[in-house]
Specification:
Blueprint: H1 33-42, H2 46-63, H3 71-76, H4 78-95, H5 102-125, H6 132-135, H7 139-142, H8 147-153, H9 161-187, H10 189-204, E1 215-223, E2 230-236, H11 238-242, E3 251-263, E4 266-276, H12 279-288, H13 294-297, E5 302-308, H14 311-327, E6 333-339, E7 360-366, E8 369-377, H15 378-386, H16 392-402, H17 405-409, H18 412-415, H19 419-436
Parallel strand pairs: 5-8
Antiparallel strand pairs: 1-2, 1-3, 3-4, 4-5, 6-7, 7-8
Length: 438
């Protein structure tokens, strides 16, 4: 399901829908040709008409007006806009369950606006970095934080089509950011993340190392010339890596900062990254899933990726985790287990994912938390980083384009980017970067 197809739930954002942004605001020209065509196209679609009325009524409620004819008065009167803005902040504060006085509510809404900007910034920073200047946010919209001002911008004929579209987009993304923040407060995710880190430091990692102490190692690997999959990998220390100067085209050197865990009288090294998904990443996931409810779409707020030397160490690490949970006073339940480390094909369900991905993946439920674990051997981790068609960088490109998110955020009639061509060029760029970097 694509976020831009006929099943998209984001009706307000669709450029072929009732709230599309044209060269001129539609409310100032109620009998324009485009409005008459719209009525003709959607009058037979009862569900679309119902969705349209729901969004329209939300717009009226936020502006505290009865019809589109009231908008010009708001555009002309600064005092009226200030009055409506104060009430709009309170309405949004209650919508998202924000407690406190008006300044606290206003500050929180502005945080959501910053998250909306961060969504675009995240895409400009990586997946669409080569097109950063094409998709940068207009100055007028990036500095705007007031929801009423943004909403009125959509209907203000003084502003260019791109600015009016970006005002609408910012409001939609702000709404998703607000839902995510409300969900995080309900689930107490900040404290759970802190508790998870404390569990790892107190019960999982070796007491022989200080908290945060890491051992530097390198994975020296050789890759197949046809698909760049890892064929051989050796663990070397920093001194040995320092003296490596000449590299073949299929040779890579990958830094891993490893911790230790103690089991059965042996210290076993493990490279670990722990993350709490940030708000901008969660917004993008909601868009990829064509979903507005974070409780449904975002099930991997807390995550840990671990890389071990071999499958035997992987098994010992999982058992060490479950034993450590018992020591911490909780059974650890492993859910939704998927193990393809032994070569079995991965049952890819996410848009853009590869069936050749090798990993052990599961959710661990313990101590009131549910944490996503992704565990690799050195070889499968290097494939996750570098293999053609499987690498995570390529997956990031595919999932954003194939889910329709890039077209959703940057429609062709405004940004003039052919997203199918951009997709292929970005995959080629990422592939080149992966194979040329040593």
């Amino acid at each position: 399901m694509s976020v831009v197809d006929e099943k998209s739930i984001f009706i307000a954002m669709k450029q072929n829908g009732p709230f599309s942004i044209h060269n001129q605001p539609s409310c100032s020209h109620p009998f324009s040709r485009q409005n008459r065509l719209w009525v003709k196209a959607f009058q037979q679609d009862k569900q679309m008409a119902t969705k349209y009325r729901a969004v329209r009524d939300q717009l009226f409620d936020l502006l505290q007006i009865e019809c589109f004819d009231d908008i010009p008065d708001l555009l002309r009167s600064t005092a009226l806009r200030e009055q409506r803005s104060e009430q709009a902040y309170r309405l949004l504060g209650n919508l998202f369950g924000i407690s406190g006085e008006l300044p606290a509510i206003r500050s929180k809404i502005h945080e959501y606006m910053n998250t909306a900007d961060a969504v675009i910034g995240q895409l400009r920073g990586k997946v669409l970095a080569a097109y950063s200047s094409h998709i940068e946010i207009s100055n007028e919209i990036e500095t705007a934080k007031n929801p009423v001002d943004l909403l009125l911008t959509i209907f203000d004929d003084r502003y260019h089509q791109k600015i009016r579209f970006e005002a609408k987009r910012k409001l939609v993304l702000m709404g998703l950011a607000g839902s995510i923040d409300q969900r995080e407060r309900e689930t107490d995710i900040e404290n759970k993340f802190s508790a998870f880190l404390n569990f790892l430091n107190q019960y999982v990692w070796s007491p022989q190392l200080k908290i945060g102490e890491l051992e530097i190692a390198y994975l020296h690997s050789y890759h197949d010339t046809t698909d760049f999959s890892c064929k051989q990998v050796d663990i070397i220390d920093a001194e040995t890596a320092h003296h490596l100067h000449e590299f073949a085209e299929n040779e890579k050197l990958t830094l891993v900062k490893r911790r230790l865990f103690h089991t059965n009288g042996e210290e076993i090294p493990v490279y670990v990254t722990v993350r709490k998904k940030d708000s901008a990443a969660k917004v993008l996931k909601l868009l990829r899933k064509n979903e507005k409810n974070p409780a449904v779409a975002v099930d991997d707020e807390l995550g840990l990726m671990a890389v071990l030397d071999n499958i035997n160490h992987v098994k010992r690490f999982v058992r060490h985790l479950t034993r450590s949970a018992v020591k911490a006073g909780s059974i650890m339940m492993l859910e939704d287990i998927s193990d393809t480390l032994a070569g079995r094909q991965y049952a890819a369900t996410s848009v853009g994912s590869s069936s050749n991905t090798q990993m052990l993946k599961f959710f661990a439920r313990m101590g009131g938390m549910r944490v996503e674990f992704i565990i690799h051997t050195n070889q499968s981790y290097l494939n996750y980083r570098y293999q053609r068609g499987t690498s995570h960088d390529e997956y990031e490109v595919r999932r954003l384009f194939d889910s329709g998110v890039t077209e959703f955020l940057f429609p062709y009639d405004i940004y003039r980017l052919d997203m199918q061509q951009v997709r292929e060029k970005q995959l080629q760029r990422f592939r080149k970067n992966i194979e040329q970097q040593r």
